[in-house]
Prior knowledge:
The chain contains six helices and five strands; from the N terminus they run βααβαβαβαβα. The protein has helices spanning 39-44, 53-62, 79-88, 107-119, 132-140, 155-163; strands at residues 13-16, 67-75, 96-99, 124-129, 145-147. It starts with 12 loop residues before the first strand and ends with a helix. The model is unreliable at 1-6 (pLDDT under 50).
Amino acid sequence: MTQNSSPKSGRPLAVFDLDNxxxxxxxxxxxxxxxxxxxxxFFAAAPHDxxxxxGVALALESAKECEVVYLTGRxxxxxxxxxxxxxxxxxxxxxxxxxxxxxxxxARSTKLETLRxxxxxxxxxxxxxxxxxxxxxxxxxGFRVVRARWAAEASALKEAQETEGRT
Length: 167
């Protein structure tokens, strides 16, 4: 153990993204396909997202060996809706890291920053995310990644994640 490292405690973490990993955002993509994008309507519709069966099953399976936590680009102001959605769909209780309301950095920056901070104290067993740029950066940083490829392609959302830092 080096001088700056400390022993990692607790169960390993399984880190799950929300949008298009656990929650199907297809019904609200229309709010991002118009100019200007209607972010308020996009996030207001999130409580009506159907769950993605593959993602939910993976989270429940991961909970057998890991503490399941959530890392999302959703703004903090939507925390109450997010907590309610997770509970309504039977997902494991776990800490949720959300984007500050005024943070517009790309998801790959904000998520990697959080992963590195978490990894200082806990083993991160896996990151499950649909954003290819997030996945690539996390892998380069040494994290094990499962790409959530079970949702329909959401090109407007992917573009917005990278250029507008909104989710």
